[in-house]
Amino acid sequence: MISSMIKRRAFAIILILLLLNVGALVLNVMLGDRSIPPGEVLRSLMGRGDPEYHFTIHQLRLPRVLTGFLVGCGLALAGTILQVITRNPLASPGVIGLNSGAAAAVVAVMVLVPAFPMRHMPWIAFIGAFLAATVIYGLSWRKGESSSTVRMLLIGVGISSMAGALITYLLTVGKIFRVSQASVWMAGSLYGRTWEHFWPLMPWLLILFLLLIWMSRWLDMFLLDVQSAAGLGLRVETMRVLFLLMSVGLAGSAVSMAGTIGFVGLMAPHMAKHLAGSRSLVRLPIAALLGGLIVMLADLAGRTWFAPYEIPAGLITAIIGAPYMMYLLLRRRGI
């Protein structure tokens, strides 16, 4: 009976979040320099809209909002993985250094290799995030297993600082046009995102999400202590590396298309845990939907609140996320 109630609650939460995401998508398509009536937006999305609005909806606004949704999903899923495998609520792609590693690699390519095709950029970001994760995991390794999660987080902060210094150097020595593009991208902006950004990101998110759902039972074992998890047959360090690589793929691909949109990977997993508990099979899709919703709403706020100026979505999420992180730190004074 209790299990049935939990399933119904989870289904209801997912359904509500799906409706909220659809509502956020429609609002993003409606509002802008030129407002479009909601009925016209819905008709156009169903393929029966006025040709007058077709270009604005399908070529300018829809790919931007859908790319933002995927970016939010990727960051939220990456954060959920990190918080589970480290058993630390402060773990996120931004805090642990994955976002910074991915960003440094992408900025290097943007500044030094201007003709590099955008469709391959997720692989560049993956390499950068992978190198950051390798250094973090390697430096935290002690006596045949990874050391305390606090040590991993502190090393991640150091990696973020080093990556930030590299980015600053690249922006200093690069050509002004490429530096300007990289600076806008670094701010976490979805400005100018097209289908060229959406389609390369889609397979990363879809494949890794389905793989995570399939492996959710193993992810749940990290909620136990190491001895108990090993007693149940989990190869703790092997699976930790595998899940870390999945987090690298999700965070790196998201960063490659939208820059460093911070705190989404910190906030969304917490909200999902509060709504649905710790079971990964339920927490993962809820966190993904929350992450997508946060980024879409942040982009909408950045476009409309300060019009005619446009504020990057990353700045909006930072304004919300920084106080939230301080709240978490105050709750964990023993860290």
Automatic annotation (TrEMBL):
Cell wall biogenesis/degradation is among the record's keywords: no
Q: Is Transmembrane helix one of the keywords UniProt gives this record? A: yes
Q: What is this protein called?
A: Iron complex transport system permease protein
- Keyword terms: Cell membrane, Membrane, Transmembrane, Transmembrane helix, Transport
- Protein family membership: Belongs to the binding-protein-dependent transport system permease family. FecCD subfamily.
Indicate where this protein is primarily found: membrane
Its record classes its membrane topology as: Multi-pass membrane protein
